[in-house]
Each structure stands twice: as structure tokens, then as C-alpha cells.
Amino acid sequence: MEPHDPLSPLENSGQLLLDVLRSSLDVIIATDLHRNIRLFNPAAETSFGYAAEEVLGAPVDQLYADPAEMHHIIDGIAREGTYTGEVLNRARDGSTFTSFLSAAAMRDPQGRTTGYMGVSRDITEMHRAEAALARSELRYRDLVDAANSIILRWDAQGRIRFLNEFGQRFFGYTAAEIIGQPVVGTIVPPSETTGRDLGALMEDIHLHPERYANNENQNMRRDGSLVWVSWTNKRILWDPAEGPEILSIGNDITRLKEVEFALQEKSLQLAEANSVLLNSNEVLRAADRMKSVFIASISHELRTPLNSIIGFTGILLQQLPGPLNLEQQKQLGIVRDSSWHLLGLINEVLDLSKIEAGRVDLFPEDVVLRVLADEVLAALAPAAQPRGLALHNDVPEGIRLYTDPTRMRQVLLNLAGNAVKFTEAGEVRIQANQHAAACKIQVVDTGPGIPEPDLPRLFQPFQQVDMALTRKHAGTGLGLYLTRKIVELLGGDVAVASTYGHGATFTVNLPLRTQVPSARDA
Amino acid sequence: MAKILLVEDNENNIYLVSYLLESRGHTLFIARTGDDALPLAASSGYDLVLMDIQLPDVDGLEVTRRLRKLPSFASVPIVAVTSFAMPGDRQAALEAGCTGYIEKPINPATFVAQVEAFLPPRLSGTL
Fold it and tell me: What phi and psi values does residue A100 have, to the nearest 5 degrees?
């Protein structure tokens, strides 16, 4: 900067003032005492559309839309010395515009009024923007009030700063009643029916609004009724002096919640019912195991007295203690047969209970099927002989099984024994063939056959088909059921085919190798 | 004629087995519990032991194991007589040291022959 000459402003004041007037963005106009224009700066030329030469000496009144306003301004200046305010100007083309005017009386160094001067600025644009803002605000206000959602603002102290009309209707308060009130105790109950502390929740929302961006909690209407509201929460800071607020927008989800709770209740009930079922299932299974253990031990106890019955009947029949007459021999013979039959029954029940309790161990070894069939048929020969039944072993030499021989023998003895028992005349045949890793063994008889309706329940317990036959042959009703269970234990299946009146064929399909379960389940 | 030790707790069975075997001329010694059997076994030489498996105190399998440890019982046949009738039971009896196995209820028509099969022919009884 150049050194400052204290005299220069005065020396150059004329030029400086001209520069100021020329350069000012604000309109500067000066008049004489008669309000005739004496100064009209370039900004005035731009604003009003007149060239300075056109208006110098002309009354300033023509620059106003309403000349009466001019008088009002002059009166103001006369009274107050200055005038500040909005005025409505008229441009050369007749259009009007609003200006913000600061006007004053001009005085000479002696204090005499020499005229008037005014500085003004066109504020039409500013007005338009303000009006637009006001309209926009009004629209947003309408939006907020017309929204079918609760819109709420509340501060860090938990006091309500704003609640839209929908929210006021929803909760049952007027704005005057609710603004400034704490949320807890008005629209928020102190705690939820679930037990959650809502006062603490409100504090936490202010501390960590991001955690509650979407939050559901219980609210309360003026009448005390509880509602569920789904809220979106966001911290806003409009005015640092007023502090942060939470803007909460909420929707009533009471109905939804009721359905949700009902569903939860139902699903709980279902889970409960399920666990009761599982429990009773377990109880049933335990009862089943106990039943099997009970039957096993009962069967054992039953055999002990049978030992005496069979033993001493046998001794008497051998006439070891002394001779018997024919009638005594006949009757003791009945006792003997009956006790052996009873023993058979007990053995089957014992076997079944062991199988059903999973307490059977298999001892598989190599078995030549034809040899086994020979043994079985030999055991049945005494029963077949009196009726002249032919027993055939058609099992090929080469079939070898790796299976439990005791159980396998039991199966064949049961099936062939049945065949012998029910066949009055003709033959009983055991045949077999091997294919891949399995073996098909068949017991074929020329007996009475089985009525078709009875076939499906033949392998069920106590389902001996013909009651007359049952009486005659004194079966236990467990034999085929036991047979099926054993075959299944050996990894196979058993089926029957029969045409009533034309014999029956029982077929056992067995794997060549019986898999032994790695662990017993009892 | 053989000296037979019968280990059995049921009086009727004792009577039945004794009657059948004594009718053949064999001599029976009775132990009614497992604990009775051991001192009795120590006393004199037997030709055969008939062993019930289900006994009130020490079971027949355990008694068999203990008898097998006595030098005098190293080669005496011990035959299990029991109403356990499953294949696994036969296996357990043989593993405990039993020579053979007769299933209860005994069949009086065949019992004597079953027992005498375990005796040398010179000791078989006669009616």
C-alpha cells in the first residue's frame, strides 16, 4: 500500500464520491426540497429503465406505483429524520417492483435541509424466494399433517417437541396438551407388558439412535389403552441451541402384533404338545421294553414248574416208580403232550419278547442249506409218517449261507412244521435257489391252502386263519409272526402265496451273508 | 456207576434229577447254592457235575469258573442244566468252562442218556 496522505481524501473527495455513486449496486437517488430529482446513479438507471438525463429535474413521485406512498415517506422523514421500509416502485415501462428503501433528509453544514436522498435495492426476487419457501414449508407441513403415520420429534430430555395431526388423533392429545410433555407417562408407558423398561429404552434411543433405526415398542393412548408401534428413529440437529432431537416416524402394528403373539402362543402350544407326544412316545417305548423284560422273566418262571410236570410225568410214564394201568398211561400221556405244548408256547413268547426287546444276539457261521433242511425234515418225519406224507428236500447242494444256524433252523422248522401239521395228504417240499447275493427258500405243501382275505394278516400275531383248524391243530398263533421276526432279524423277508384248496407256498428271501448289528440297543 | 455233584436250588428239580439218576445206580451229592458247591467240591473226587446256571447267590457260570481253577476239577465234565435257551447262553456256559449243555425242562425220556454221554462207558449206570 502507498503511504497514506491525510489530505488526499479531502482533495479528491469530488472524484471519490462520483466513483462511489457510479459503482454502487444499490439505487441512489437525491432530490431537492420539491422532490425533483437531482441525482440518479447508474444502478437507478438499471432498476427503473430511465437514463439519468430523462429524469433529472423531474419529480421523484413518478418512480412510485402509488404517489400517496411518496407522501407517506416524506412525512416519515419529517417526523423521524429517516425512513426505512419496503416501497413499491414503478419502472419506465410501467412495471412495478418492491424495493427496500432507506431515505433521509439531506442537510448542509449549517444544518439546513437541502433535499432528500434514498438508497434502495430491488427485493422482488428475494420476496419471490421467500414466498416460494413459505409455500414449500406449508406443503411440507401439510404432508406431515396429512401423513397416515405418527411423526414425532422429541429432545434429549425426553420431551415432545412436535407431534403431527395424525399422531395427535392417534394418541388422543391436542398439540397444546402434548407439546413439551415428557414422552414417558404420556404416549410411552413406563414399562411394556413384556416387562421391558421403556424409560431406559427412550434414554438409550437418544444415546444410540443408530441401534434403533427400526424399533418396535409398546405405546399408550390417552385412554390408557396399549398399542404396538413400529418406529423408525433418526437423530436430527436443526438448531445447536435447541440440542439434538430424535425424529420418530411410527405406524400402528397392534393388529399385526396380536396375530404374531397368537402365532407365537400357538407355536409354543405346538412345541409343548410335541414334547408331550415325544415324552409319551418315550414312556411307551420304555413300557414296551419293560413289558419285554417282564415277559422274558415270567417265561423263565413258567418253565420251572413245567420242568417238574414234564419230568415227573415222564418218570411215571416210564413206570420207574411202579406199573401203570392203561387208563393211567392214557391220561398221563395227555398231561405230557399238553405240558410240551405249553412249553412250546412259552418258548415262542420268550423268543418274541427277546426279539422285540432287541435282546437277541446272532451267531452267524457257514451253513450248508441242504444239510439244515435235512435235519429239519428228519425232525418232522415222526409227525409226517402216520399220514403217509412225503417230505422232499429239493435244496441244491451248493447253497451256502453265512447266517445263524439255530435261527435258520427255527425258521424252517416253523414253516415246514406248519406245512406238515396242516397237510392231510400229499407232500411237503423244501426247495431253494440262489441268485446274486440272495437266496430264495420255499416251503411248498399240498395242504388246504389259505383263503385270500386271510393272506395279508397271516404274519400278524394271533391271526391263525381258520378257527376250526386252530382248535384241531392247537397252534399258538405266534409261530408265523415269530418266523417273520426272525427272518427280518436275519436281514430277509418272508411271504406267502396260496390258492385256497390248492396248497400254500411260503417264500423266504435271505441275503447270503447276514449282517450282525454292531451294537445291541438294550 | 458215577459220583455226580448236582448244583441246583429247586427242590423239585433236585428230586427229579436225583430220582432219574439214582434209578440208574449213580450216587448224587447235592449243593443248593454256589457257596455250598465249592467246599463240597473240595472234599472228594466226582465223575461229573450237573450245574444249574440260575442260582440264588453266585451264579452257575461263576461257580464253574472257580471249580475249573481247582486241580482236581481240571478234567471233570461240568454240564450246564438251565432254562436259558438262547444260543448266546450256550456260548457263555462253554466259555465259563462247561463241557456241555442240557436244556430245561429236561426230557425224562432222554435225560439219562444225555448225562451218561458225558461219562466214560464204564461208569454208565444200569436199571
Answer: -100, 120
Q: Shortest Cα distance from A310 to chain B (angstroms)?
A: 7
Using CA atoms, how far apart are residues A473 and A418, in angstroms rounded to an integer?
9
Strands B48-52 and B3-7: parallel
Please spell the DSSP secondary structure of A434-488, one letter per residue. EETTEEEEEEEE-S----GGGGGGTTSTT--S-HHHHHHHT--S-HHHHHHHHHH
Test mutation, B21, B81, B86, chain A, max A CBs within 10 A: B86
**Average pLDDT along chain A, 522 residues, taken 10 residues at a time:** 50 80 92 92 94 92 87 83 90 92 90 90 88 88 85 92 93 93 92 88 90 92 93 89 90 91 91 89 82 71 86 92 93 90 82 77 89 93 90 93 91 93 92 90 92 84 54 64 91 91 92 69 38
Nearest CB partner across the interface for A312, out of B16, B54, B91: B16
In angstroms, rounded to a whole number, what is the distance separating the alpha carbons of residues B63 and B79? 12
Residue among A307, A363, A406 minimizing CB distance to B106: A307
Q: Do B108 and A311 touch (CB under 8 A)?
A: yes
Does the pTM exceed 0.80?
A: no
3-state secondary structure (DSSP) of residue A224: coil
Could you say which residues from 42 to 81 on chain B have a Cβ atom under 8 Å away from some Cβ of chain A? 54
A88 near A98, Cβ under 8 Å? Answer: yes
Of A311, A361, A406, the CB nearest to B16: A311
Element (H, E) at A431: strand A427-435
The pLDDT tens digits for B74-106 are 889 999 987 765 556 777 888 999 999 898 888
Question: What is the phi/psi pair of residue B58, to 5°?
Answer: -75, 130
Quote the CA–CA distance of A1 and A31 in Å, as a whole number: 38
Report how far residue A88's alpha carbon sits from residue A67's, in angstroms, rounded to the nearest whole number.
10
Query: Is the Cβ of B85 closer than 8 Å to some Cβ of chain A?
Result: yes
Q: In this predicted structure, what is the pLDDT of residue A347?
A: 81
3-class SS of residue A105: strand
The confidence score (pLDDT) of residue A520 equals: 42
Q: Buried (b) or exposed (e) across B41-69, using 16+ Cβ within 10 A?
A: beeeebbbbbbbbbbeebbbbebbebbee
Are A449 and A503 in contact by the 8 Å Cβ rule? The answer is yes
Grid cell, residue A508, equals 423266504
Of B10, B20, B83, the CB nearest to A300: B83
Interface membership of B108 toward A (CB under 8 Å): yes
In this structure, the number of other CB atoms found within 10 A of the CB of residue A154 comes to: 24
A361 contact B CB<8A: yes
d(CA B118, CA A457): 47
Contact of A482 with A351, CB cutoff 8 Å:
yes
Within 8 A of B106 by CB-CB distance, chain A residues are 307, 310-311
Task: Give the span between the Cα atoms of A337 and A96, in whole angstroms.
Answer: 136
